[in-house]
Amino acid sequence: METIIDKCKRGPGRPPDQALQERRKEEILHRAEAIFAKHGYPNTDLQWVADALGLSKGTIYRYFPTKEELFLETVRRGVRRMREHIDHAAARAADPVDRIVEAVRAYLEFFKTSPELVELFIQERAEFKEHRKPIYFEHRDAARGPWREMIAGLIAAGRIRQVPVERVIDVLGDVLYGTMFTNHFAGRDKGYQAQAEDVLDVVLNGILSEGERKTRAAGGPAK
Predict the structure, then answer these.
(1) What is the pLDDT of residues 69-114, one digit of tens each?
(2) pLDDT tier, 174 (very low <50, low <70, confident <90, very high otherwise)
């Protein structure tokens, strides 16, 4: 029989493997995204997530004590992945305007390859609209700082016309957000590159001809 002295000689138990825990958490969130997207939040049983990973249901609960917590963290993970993808693409461009171009392309590319996250946005709105702001907008508002500063610099340099910075951010953000949902609901199969070019052409160049802009700036519509 093992004595107290033997236990002391053996030393304390091995500390938890933090890297392993992070990998396990990521695996759970990855599986949960697909399962919630397919079955919906109310109908999903966490046993399905456990079964998909060969784990016990109790293991899932050790990482995420409730289904709600797992669902919301799954959405947060998706939004973080979106932001990382956009930031990585934008960072490749040295010129500020090119960063906007790359960000638009990356946004549409991400949702073209991650339709499950769009389903989770819809479910979050349906299930939790009474007591919380959508995670997408929480993250979008928190991430505005660098873009606000960059656009203000472009306005100061005369590369963007004199309009409020917040209007630029809001309009471009709303256009992309609406495009993402329209693509999802309408089942559009247009390539994200071509769609990005359409959005950028209208946003950066406008729809009025140079002559029409001058005429309207002078006080009236073209005759």
Answers:
(1) 999 999 999 999 999 999 999 999 999 999 999 999 999 999 999 9
(2) very high
| Cα–Cα distance measured from residue 190 to residue 188, given in angstroms and rounded to the nearest whole number | 6
Distance CA 90, CA 97 (A): 10
CATH superfamily of 71-205: Tetracycline Repressor, domain 2 (1.10.357.10)
pTM, two decimals, is 0.87
* Contact call for residues 62 and 69 (beta carbons, < 8 A): no
In 3D space, the residue among 90, 174, 98 whose CA is nearest the CA of residue 136 turns out to be: 174
Structure tokens at 172: 């471009």
Residues 6+ apart with CB under 8 A from 69: none
Name the maximum alpha-carbon separation found in the chain.
Answer: 102
